[in-house]
Design goal:
By secondary structure, this protein is of the alpha/beta class. Helices cover 45% and strands 24% of the residues. The longest helix is centred in the C-terminal third of the chain and has 20 residues. The protein binds flavin mononucleotide.
């Protein structure tokens, strides 16, 4: 069985989606790892249990993870508790100006699951501040997308090499 990387994402205005897709493109360079993008609203506990490592990608809203991401964690938390301990994860956050609240929240959830953080949270800031800018479609810059790609590649390479 190839080792599997699950990239769970939610996005309202496209920023997080671009980040998740960039991470998936990086992970795809490691051909021996099966990496998969899953929308937070569609991913469930079976997907979590079937994967060997995780990338959680979410917008920050109201200093928290996005609502559908929270719904994903709420649906999966107890079905997966005690069954995924020690597996590697990293978080990617798309934020207007902050991102730390969402990063802390994912770290708390991952601590509960006893996952192992293998990278610092990756935060891309769009600098959207006005209501119009917040609601507008987002374009993540090449530097941030490159960081996401590297993170995906690193996760997949670590899984392939059995480091994680
Ligand atoms: C209701 C709402 C609340 C938000 N709260 C925050 C916040 O607390 N901190 C922050 O940095 N950005 C905040 N933002 C900005 C979003 O993080 C930003 O627009 C980001 O690009 C959303 O990601 P997405 O493009 O993947 O949907 C908020 C946006 C919305 C719509």
């Amino acid at each position: 069985m190839p080792r599997a990387l699950l990239i769970v994402w939610h996005s309202s205005t496209g920023g997080t989606r671009q980040m998740a897709e960039a991470a998936a493109a990086g992970a795809a360079r490691e051909r021996s790892v099966a990496s998969r993008l899953a929308r937070a609203g569609e991913a469930g506990a079976d997907d979590v249990l079937a994967a060997d490592g995780y990338l959680f990608a979410t917008p920050e809203t109201l200093a928290s993870i996005g609502g559908l991401m929270k719904d994903f964690f709420e649906r999966c938390y107890y079905p997966a508790l005690g069954k995924i301990e020690g597996r590697p994860y990293a978080a990617m956050i798309c934020a207007g100006s902050d991102g730390e609240g969402a990063a802390r929240q994912i770290a708390r959830i991952a601590t509960g699951w006893r996952l192992r953080a293998v990278a610092q949270p990756l935060i891309a800031r769009t600098h959207a501040l006005t209501p119009e800018a917040i609601l507008a479609p987002k374009t993540i810059g090449p530097d941030d997308l490159a960081r996401c790609e590297e993170l995906g590649e690193m996760m997949a390479a670590g899984l392939a090499a059995g480091i994680f």
